[in-house]
Amino acid sequence: MKKKGLAALVFAWMLLMVMAQTGQAAPGSTSIYLDGKALALPENGQVQNVNGNVMIPIRVVAEELGFDVNYEKKTSTVTIKQSGTTLILNVNKTTASVNGSKVNLPIAPKLAEDTTLVPMRFVGEQMGLEVSWDNTAKSAYLTSSSSGSGSGNAGNAGSGSGTGNGTDTGTGTGADGQQPGTVVPPVNGAELAKVTGIGFSNNSLMIAVDKNVTPSIFTMSGPERLVIDLPQAQFADTLANGAPLDVNKSGAIEVMDYPDVSKVRYALFSSNPSTVRIVLDLNHKVNYQLVNENDGLIFVNLNMDPSQGGNSGGDGKKTVVLDAGHGGSDPGAISVTKKKEKDFNLAVVLKVQKLLQNDPNINLVLTRESDTYPTLPDRVKIAENVGADIFISVHANSGSATASGVETYYTRAASLDLAKVMHKHLVQASGLADRKVRTQSLHVTRETTMPAVLLECGYLSNKNDDALLATDEYRNKVAQGVADGIKEYLGLQ
């Protein structure tokens, strides 16, 4: 199905409500924004959170929009047709049909009085829309592919010099405190952005933040350093990806196997305005590129100064991105014994990490190492920015009580060979039924540019699969299968 047709159908499905009257949302109620435009909601059409799944209300589609919409009350079936594409959704059923192909939903659509609610995850993963949920504002944001996003900010923003006295991430004065660049004054009443994660991989620094910030980046000499200041920001209570944070709100990451950087240091540099400073201790001068698209992730990509000779990060390693599906506020599927898919996904990925972390030919990057939720675009961006050779997303499935087995999904033809290899090892390791390699338009396998697959390691809706998925023995077997598949595909066996 073409992405435009899918996005249009999602718009229709979001707007559909049988015989509802249009009205503005009441003050303090939830809101839905499509490409930045607030949608008018009926009074009883509120966004709901059902077992961790954000459910979006639907109302009637105006005929002038060109959609052919039919609601069959007897069967509780909604059929939407547009430009040769047919979407069929059923109330209280976790499967939908797109042009005759079966699509699984994380939770069934339901009726709330005369309004139909559909899971927002379905909108994002199946229909090509980027989605996000602001829990504070109780607002859902949907962005179609046509709206796009701006390019990152690239280049060297300022330069400077100073003497390295070990205080360049601390508060106070001194040569390192006289940084060039723009200092943003405090905004009265403004909530500070929180830095939620700091990591260094593939010769790139990654900073995760929970709201937009405008970084200032510059160099210092004697010794060589690269400094990134985040004004109007503070640290979260803990940092993701295992980055340490002490009681003084500072920490450091030792950098190994990269020729440009020896250490990453960070601290709360100033309290007025509140500013987080991150310093890269360099082995020599570097060229760098700051990429900030105001989507929650900031990258600083490094390239060795050509005058130094040699290469930058060109160590011949293959970069593998491991993605533990769901996480944080998104539990994924819920098993028959009330276990959460996100926990299984993370446990397996961490086991794969242990199996491969000492392989001299592999550079591992995890989209999450704890119970956090990177958005689907975040996961893609991580893979793209580290120049991943392959992308592996780990999941557990949900369907009927009798469905059992493992599946491997891919979207682009370039991913088929990877899918075949990974699926072979998944079937062997799991011992479950072979439900074959399948193609489906999933965000992380569609929007990535390297070979990418999504592994479904069993059915949480099946009592036998569920019991296996909960055991450490099964998780170890699946992790070994994933590791073996990665090595075979990369020619490292």
TrEMBL record:
Recorded superkingdom: Bacteria
Record GO terms (molecular function): N-acetylmuramoyl-L-alanine amidase activity
Signal as UniProt keyword: yes
Gene Ontology terms: biological process: peptidoglycan catabolic process
InterPro entries to which the protein is assigned, alphabetical: AMIN_dom, Cu_amine_oxidase-like_N, Mao_N_sf, MurNAc-LAA_cat, N-acetylmuramoyl_amidase_3
Transmembrane regions: none
Protein name (record): N-acetylmuramoyl-L-alanine amidase family protein
Organism: Paenibacillus mellifer
